[in-house]
Amino acid sequence: TGGPYYKVRLGRKDGRVSDASRVESNLPLPTMTVTQLASVFAAKGFSIGEMVALIGAHTIGFSHCKEFAKRLYSFSRASPVDPSMNTVLSQALQKACANYTKDPTMSVFNDVMTPGKFDNMYYQNLEKGLGLLASDQVLYTDPRTKVFVELFARNQTAFFNAFVDAMDKLSIVGVKVGRKGEVRKRCDMVNT
């Protein structure tokens, strides 16, 4: 619930080929550094600020425990738990994810404070070490992104406006024109 209202552009054409092997190189991974994240987003024409706004979508949804387990159990030789993670959170996650290797479907909410609400709490969480994914928490520790985390944490309107602008821009990345694509009758399959 909540979040900004924005119009979604209609009539976008999709490609006629869907290949799973092309996905990973086009998406940010939960273990990426800010430099790696910035590279993925820059390849699509996004600035650092736009990237931080888009990643703010993690204010809703969940992640499977396997995506952040290294932060809980095997971070480094010096510390099995990522020291940037809030201690209370890490202990709760260790309990919630205790059997993640036996049950790969185990997951937790990305935003532990307001998981069902699209708001700026995600950024406030990062300031408190409550980022779930490593790629989330590094947004607060890197000076290139920290300024945006701090802005969005204190100003929800700024976050919403930046998110809407970035989502609109995202909606036209890689648009197919002419005979290079099709408007699908069903989004999960190529037209026949």
TrEMBL record:
List of residues binding substrate: 28
Cofactor note (record): Binds 2 calcium ions per subunit. Binds 1 heme b (iron(II)-protoporphyrin IX) group per subunit.
Cysteines joined through disulfide linkages: 65-97
Binding site for heme b: 58
UniProt GO MF annotations: heme binding; lactoperoxidase activity; metal ion binding
Pfam families on file: peroxidase (PF00141)
Family: Belongs to the peroxidase family. Ascorbate peroxidase subfamily.
Name of the protein in question: peroxidase
Organism encoding this protein: Nymphaea colorata
Lineage: Eukaryota, Viridiplantae, Streptophyta, Embryophyta, Tracheophyta
